[in-house]
Amino acid sequence: MDAIIDYFSHMPTIHRTAILVGGLTFFWLLESAVPLFRFNYKKWNHAGINIFFTVTTIVVNFSMAFILVKTADYVTAEKIGILHLIEMPVWAFMVVGILLMDLIGAWLIHYLEHKIQWMWRFHLVHHTDQQIDTTSANRHHPGESVFRFVFTTLAVLVVGAPMWMVFLYQTMSVVLTQFNHSNIILPKWLDNSLGLLFCTPDIHRIHHHHKQPYTDTNFGNIFSIWDRIFGTFVMVSNHKLIYGLDTYTDSWEVTDIWKILKMPFMPYRPPVKYDLEEKL
Question: What is the pTM of this model?
Fold first, then answer.
């Protein structure tokens, strides 16, 4: 445990970059070997759009990183937050902290993005991708990156997470997000086993189906347990999924970076094919 804490307390920027790039590369290659869907698309062009938004996410997070550091240092020094209410072993401190960081910093904000219209206007940029692969993981409008950062900071404040835990959480988040967006097919027994705790590709892909109510299920990022607890967990055959949104069906609209950047500020488009009884 001491080695983990020491590493993430002093995690070099180059290591964080290597994890981001290495993860994308690994899952990119794996998608070519064992794909679920064989998309008829220009993979490099598709990746270029999503990498643009990955860069904007990095810029937003880097420019405000000092807020996260100050918050983590403050809650640690003042013993503020849930983790400081009860004495517990270091391993339990880490497990509980990561679980709560994921709940507040990922699941909760993701759920709200689907329920609050002005947030959805930004988040829909992520959902308009019509070919979900590992590069789709960080396809987020810069505006969404801002309020996701706010909720990560809120999570640090509520949980009382030290900076090493924040780095560990962010590392897990990057890798698991790339994994559960990847266009790969896993043995069913493996996906089912991992899915008891973690958000796997078979679980998260359902969230990217183009119609409600499936769009409003499986909000998990790292852990699948929150969706199970809050009643938003659904499993259906991935082979029948259609990616994108039923309100943005034209490919030219969702592959032009300038048009994508303007989406939150365009007239709202309500779901046009909402059907609670529809079964895949």
Answer: 0.93
